[in-house]
């Protein structure tokens, strides 16, 4: 919006500066004047501008000096230079150095307004594009991986070092641990990020179709091939191909994949010739490929080709300190998908219980459980009873003090949770619980009525 844009007008002839300021101000812009290059450079350091309108020919510090300072201060700041007809050659040189546009004197004021408006629009579009790229990077890059435990910090450091390489990477980890997120982070943080990231699960397709899916086929190559298909290698050309669960690839296809890695060429099913491809290969497996190589179920030469760099994704049970952050994130995601759910948070004892569960399905299992709690929850806060109701696994008992570990919990809340825990330990016998707590049984009844929202009379 013009009213939010600030423009710096630079001209060593003050009357020219004033002549430009008035129509720009009338158009809704905030305008600052500078009567020399040195003063303009000082103003650029002191304030943020959206456009600079600067005379090219000035004594001592000229427009090219101002342009250079503006580029150092903000490489995307549009600088429009004003020049006399005889100095067009200098203006062209300024364009080579990064000026956004130049105006030849004498010019019309509506021409100035037109180019200022275009410069602002270009700056806005660049900012939107930059924000979009940042959001995509957050979703697909390191920002998509959550956790600050020691195993995850180690993994982040390795991803940061490996991303810039062209070497194949073998990502190892249990099912549901986040291997594809690691692969996407390697792609997004590396030089191939503008190019495609293509993923295929080697177990998701019948073996007969996997070759066609990877390498493509020509029309009529086999029964049902009614059209030509490029294949995933060509779709990923210039980018990254992620082969998930590579350990399940059939032996005959392993040989063809090895040939592609060696020659950099793919041959579609039924084709007479090959086509060159430039693809970085990332592979993942939950299996012990070393053992499968020894058993003769996976080619040793392909294994060595893929295992240039190996990354291990830790299972959730090795980074339980990340569970509170993960659970909070999954609640927010589930609420966005289920806006009618009343659930807003998990009780502290629920989070503490989640941290003590075994999680054989890792992060994916935790995400699915949180989604179930949000979808089926009937109250804003999911309590331990609801957790036990909606999970098939044995829920480990958690003492209220353990639930409060690592966070500040109001004393009244902790007191109520402890009373409820003791009552549960006594099989619901409140008289016995009161004896153990050293309080009157009426105190327990009163706390229950208060906690359930029943007003006391």
TrEMBL record:
Sites bearing 4-aspartylphosphate, chain numbering: 55
Cross-referenced SMART domains: AAA, REC
Keyword Repeat among record annotations: no
Domain Response regulatory: 6-120
Listed Pfam families: AAA_lid_14, HTH_8, Response_reg, Sigma54_activat
Tagged with keyword ATP-binding: yes
Segment forming the signal sequence: none
Stretches assigned to the Sigma-54 factor interaction domain: 145-375
Listed GO biological process terms: phosphorelay signal transduction system; regulation of DNA-templated transcription
InterPro entries hit by this protein: AAA+_ATPase (IPR003593), AAA_lid_NorR (IPR058031), CheY-like_superfamily (IPR011006), Homeodomain-like_sf (IPR009057), HTH_Fis (IPR002197), P-loop_NTPase (IPR027417), Sig_transdc_resp-reg_receiver (IPR001789), Sigma_54_int (IPR002078)
Record's keyword terms, sorted: ATP-binding, DNA-binding, Nucleotide-binding, Phosphoprotein, Transcription, Transcription regulation, Two-component regulatory system
Gene Ontology molecular function: any one: ATP binding
PROSITE patterns found in the cross-reference section: RESPONSE_REGULATORY (PS50110), SIGMA54_INTERACT_1 (PS00675), SIGMA54_INTERACT_2 (PS00676), SIGMA54_INTERACT_3 (PS00688), SIGMA54_INTERACT_4 (PS50045)
Gene3D superfamilies membership: 1.10.8.60, 3.40.50.2300, Homeodomain-like (1.10.10.60), P-loop containing nucleotide triphosphate hydrolases (3.40.50.300)
PANTHER family for the chain: ALGINATE BIOSYNTHESIS TRANSCRIPTIONAL REGULATORY PROTEIN ALGB, TRANSCRIPTIONAL REGULATORY PROTEIN
Protein name: Sigma-54-dependent Fis family transcriptional regulator
Source taxonomy: Bacteria, Pseudomonadati, Myxococcota, Myxococcia, Myxococcales
């Amino acid at each position: 919006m013009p009213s939010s844009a600030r423009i710096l007008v630079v001209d060593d002839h003050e009357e020219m500066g004033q002549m430009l300021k008035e129509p720009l101000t009338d158009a809704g812009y905030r305008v600052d004047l500078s009567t020399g290059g040195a003063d303009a450079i000082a103003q650029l350091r002191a304030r943020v501008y959206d456009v600079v309108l600067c005379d090219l020919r000035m004594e001592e510090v000229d427009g090219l000096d101002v342009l250079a300072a503006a580029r150092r201060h903000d490489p995307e700041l549009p600088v429009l230079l004003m020049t006399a007809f005889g100095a067009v050659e200098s203006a062209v040189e300024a364009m080579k150095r990064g000026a956004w546009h130049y105006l030849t004197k004498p010019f019309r004021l509506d021409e100035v307004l037109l180019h200022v408006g275009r410069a602002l629009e270009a700056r806005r579009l660049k900012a939107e594009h930059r924000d979009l790229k940042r959001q995509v990077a957050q979703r697909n890059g390191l920002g998509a991986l959550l956790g600050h435990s020691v195993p995850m910090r180690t993994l982040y450091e390795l991803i940061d070092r490996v991303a810039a390489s062209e070497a194949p990477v073998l990502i190892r980890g249990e099912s549901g641990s986040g291997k594809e997120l690691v692969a996407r982070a390697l792609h997004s943080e590396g030089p191939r990020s503008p190019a495609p990231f293509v993923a295929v699960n080697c177990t998701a397709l019948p073996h007969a179709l996997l070759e066609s899916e990877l390498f493509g086929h020509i029309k009529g190559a086999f029964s049902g091939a009614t059209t030509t298909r490029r294949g995933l290698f060509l779709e990923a050309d210039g980018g990254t191909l992620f082969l998930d669960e590579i350990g399940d690839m059939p032996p005959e296809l392993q040989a063809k994949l090895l040939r592609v890695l060696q020659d950099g060429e793919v041959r579609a099913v039924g084709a007479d010739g090959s086509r060159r491809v430039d693809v970085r290969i990332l592979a993942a497996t939950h299996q012990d490929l070393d053992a499968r190589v020894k058993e003769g179920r996976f080619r040793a030469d392909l294994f060595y080709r893929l295992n240039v760099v190996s990354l291990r994704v830790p299972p959730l049970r090795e980074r339980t300190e990340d569970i509170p952050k993960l659970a909070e994130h999954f609640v927010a995601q589930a609420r966005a998908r289920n806006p009618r759910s009343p659930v807003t948070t998990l009780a502290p004892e629920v989070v503490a219980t989640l941290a003590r569960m075994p999680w054989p399905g890792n992060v994916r299992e935790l995400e699915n459980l949180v989604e179930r709690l949000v979808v089926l929850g009937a109250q804003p806060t999911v309590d331990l009873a609801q957790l036990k109701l909606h999970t098939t696994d044995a829920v480990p008992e958690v003492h209220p003090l353990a639930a409060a570990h690592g966070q500040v919990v109001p004393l009244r809340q902790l007191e109520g949770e402890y009373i409820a825990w003791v009552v549960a330990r006594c099989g619901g016998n409140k008289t016995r619980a009161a004896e153990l707590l050293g309080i009157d049984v009426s105190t327990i009844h009163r706390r229950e009525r208060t906690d359930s929202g029943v007003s006391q009379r």
